[in-house]
Amino acid sequence: MSFFKKIFSSDKKETLDKGLEKSKTSFFSKLSKAVAGKSKVDDDVLDDLEEVLISSDVGVDTTLKIIKRIEERVDRDKYLGTDELNLILREEIAGLLSETSGEDAVDFEIPADKKPYVLMVVGVNGVGKTTTIGKLAAQFKKKGLNVVLGAADTFRAAAIDQLQVWADRVDVPLVRQDMGSDPASVAFDTLKSAVAKNADVVIIDTAGRLHNKINLMTELTKIKRVMQKVVADAPHDVLLVLDGSTGQNAFEQAKQFTLATEVTALAVTKLDGTAKGGVVIGISDQFKIPVKYIGVGEGIDDLQVFNKIEFVDSFFK
User: Which stretch is the leader sequence (predicted)?
Assistant: First the structure.
């Protein structure tokens, strides 16, 4: 299909293929058992396929959409062999995501009319939020952009120190205060510093304490309001980081954070260490928020701009 034109460079595609290996192996193991001894895609095969997709963390709603598309194709083509199921799945999922998730970015791009471009990053502890910020800073710097980081997760000293390690590693400035400081004050100082330095990109880390959603909502609203005193339309994006290895829990976190603040983009991390990569398909389809980045390894270059067609191609390769 024309969907599957190559967009990524060969090294990025190789990293993506490798990063999805566990998910792919698990999925095809289940799929092989489901169609064993059967030659035709019939109701029994579709029932088994539904179970395979749900157990692969694609999510119930997205799974039902995929099954419906395949049922329509079976009706249209009259006979589909189980040997064609892999290709059919690949095509129908790519088609579904192309219809529902908007355009993909090709590279680490920022809006040309935003200077500085302000990115506020949210997510619970342990999802890879700080690491994602560090890797984003590295990618933006590689493009020749001046980056400033802000450590507004003042709830944990470890968060500030970890971000400092990344700032030193990438060689970008970090604006920080002591643990327990007002996060909005840190965000304000970061933007003031970024404007003074004529920075291109500002990335603000924030605390994510979902067990206290009202406080979280209040804090994030205050951070936004204070930032707008320096940059009128900041933040330009609110990036929610989700841990792909948590499967369905990532769906729940996405729901909770979208209630707490206006999330405009998603990053799904830790896909290389899990068999739950199908969660990206479900999240990409279910939330009307684009998956912008995925983490498929521990290296700095293993944070990739998400391209749904390349992702599906790797998943069903």
Answer: none
272 appears as a binding residue in the annotation: yes
209 is in an annotated binding site: yes
pLDDT digits (tens, 9 = 90+) for 64-107: 999 999 999 888 887 778 788 888 888 888 888 887 656 666 68
Q: Do 110 and 117 touch, CB atoms closer than 8 A?
A: yes
69 annotated ligand binder: no
- Tell me yes or no: is domain 7-100 CATH 1.20.120.140: yes
Confidence of residue 24 (pLDDT cuts 50, 70, 90): confident
Is 131 annotated among the ligand-binding residues? no
207 is in an annotated binding site: yes
Is residue 317 pLDDT above 80, yes or no?
no
Q: What is the pLDDT at residue 125?
A: 86
List where CATH 3.40.50.300 sits in the chain.
117-306
- Is 295 annotated in some ligand binding site? no
Helices marked H in the chain: 10-19, 21-35, 43-55, 60-77, 85-100, 129-142, 157-170, 183-196, 213-227, 248-260, 279-286, 308-315
Average pLDDT over residues 21-25: 89
Sheet holding 237-243, edge to edge: 174-175, 147-152, 201-206, 117-122, 237-243, 265-269, 291-295, 303-305
- The segment(s) of the chain belonging to CATH 1.20.120.140 are 7-100
Residue 127 annotated as part of some ligand binding site: yes
Q: What architecture is the 117-306 domain classified under in CATH?
A: 3-Layer(aba) Sandwich (3.40)
- 185-211 pLDDT, tens digit per residue, is 999 999 999 999 999 999 999 987 766
Please give the model's pTM, rounded to 2 decimal places: 0.90
Q: Rounded CA gap, 13 and 224, in Å?
A: 36
